[in-house]
Design brief:
The protein is of the alpha/beta class. The protein has 13 helices and 11 strands. The radius of gyration is 22 Å and the shape is globular. 36% of the residues are buried. The mean pLDDT is 96. Bound molecules: pyridoxal-5'-phosphate (PLP). This is Histidinol-phosphate aminotransferase.
Amino acid sequence: MKPLEQLLRPNIKDLKPYSSARDEYSGEAAVFLDANENPFNAPYNRYPDPYQRELKSHIAGIKNIPPEKIFLGNGSDEAIDIVLRAFCEPGIDNIVSIAPTYGMYQVAADINNIEVRKAFLTSDFQLDPQAVLNQVDEHTKIIFLCSPNNPTGNCFRDRDVLEVLKGFDGIVVMDEAYIDFAPEKSWLPRLNDWPGLIILQTFSKAWGMAGIRLGMAFANKQIINTFSKIKYPYNINILTQKTALDFITQKHTQMQAWVKEILSEKKILTNALKQLPFVQHIFPSDANFLLIKTQNPKKIYNFLVEKKIIVRDRSSVALCEGCLRITVGTPRENRTLISALKMF
Ligand SMILES: *Cc1c(COP(=O)(O)O)cnc(C)c1O
């Protein structure tokens, strides 16, 4: 990786962050008269811990990553936005992204006026490392990868990801939102080998907490410190910190049990979908959803909507022509879907 000072935007490199009352004093005290809070209405009258220390220490234990290499955001969405704002000068710098992939990279880049240069996946949705590296120019600061990828569902091969990491001296973001469902290993244990690597994970999928908005970014300490300077001081509210902490400490086995059940349901759903004459192909999935190719996706989509079943129409996405993306639901939801499709 290039020195971080060369990759960061100059205004971010020199940024003096907002110093909150809780920054200036964070020890144990009996009387807090420093933040103009209402002294009544406990427990929500106080500002939350801006660095989420207790929650991070528990996540550190689960992930086996020290807390100083963890950033927590209002969903992964916040981390995606902050990476862009830290490294890319609007109107000048660009990012390279794969296609098809998660739509937020493009939207976040558009909002920040940052060009997205796209490298198509191969016809079987594998990463083409040379195609990615060919899109890099002298203004490319970040490459966004997503494995398992959304909406294709597959993990990328290690050797292809390695080729990208070796061939680029900027920041590589690896979005692992679905990694808990995948047979492949996370890149987390290899974080130390790649100073420019940022790994994103989330509480929105396997952990079953999309509603509390909590995303994680893992990276070297310097990068995490930079993100902490950029974020809103109190970006993770008390309710979210407490809900996540309670779940992790009291119900930590629940997540693995859900993953197991969802994966077994995915098999059942796959077999049922295979029987349907209009399903031409079911792409291999390492995630909690299936991408299926059909002859008439829009008709099927509308037919299901009439039956109050909503799937995702991805048929207008390049390389996903004819495709619908279906999340694996509860056994009952999946049976409802299959019964409906049998009537199509
Ligand atoms: C669902 C998803 C996320 C999660 O986003 P949150 O903001 O954490 O809810 C991130 N990346 C990908 C690829 C996803 O599909």
